[in-house]
Design goal:
SnoaL-like domain-containing protein; single chain; NTF2-like_dom_sf; five-stranded mixed β-sheet; SnoaL-like; alpha+beta
């Protein structure tokens, strides 16, 4: 399985299917989290799930894979009160997600942007 396929399966199983056993399958045991509001390790992921909105939805658009790095550009509902655009950067090691960074910003509809363009690549 390619690294981007691992990331897609991991994110779907944990965040959409709410399968907590996905953590052991897809996240490295020494997983490092670089989002300052989240903790590292499997326990950090387990602790995150109860705080997510029940309608949480991660919809990736652009996905780039380069060696052990996967970058996704996504629309996320349920991370907070409004939809957000997220760029996630994953580093994989031994077929599992070993590190994660992200950049998050509130979605601005094309009708309200200065350029009239959507913030996503798939709407």
């Amino acid at each position: 399985m390619k690294n981007k396929e691992i990331v897609l399966k991991a994110m779907n199983e944990l965040f959409h299917e709410k399968d907590i056993t996905a953590i052991e399958r897809y996240w490295h045991e020494s997983y490092q989290q670089h989002n300052p509001s989240m903790t590292s390790g499997h326990e950090g992921l387990r602790n995150l799930l109860p705080f997510l909105d029940s309608n949480f939805k991660w919809k990736p658009g652009i996905i780039v894979e380069e060696k052990d790095i996967v970058i996704t550009h996504s629309l996320v509902h349920g991370w907070g009160p409004v939809p957000v655009i997220v760029v996630d950067i994953f580093r994989l090691e031994d077929g599992k997600i070993a590190e994660h960074w992200d950049v998050v910003q509130e979605e601005t509809p094309a009708s309200k942007s200065a350029n009239g363009n959507a913030m996503t690549s798939f709407l």
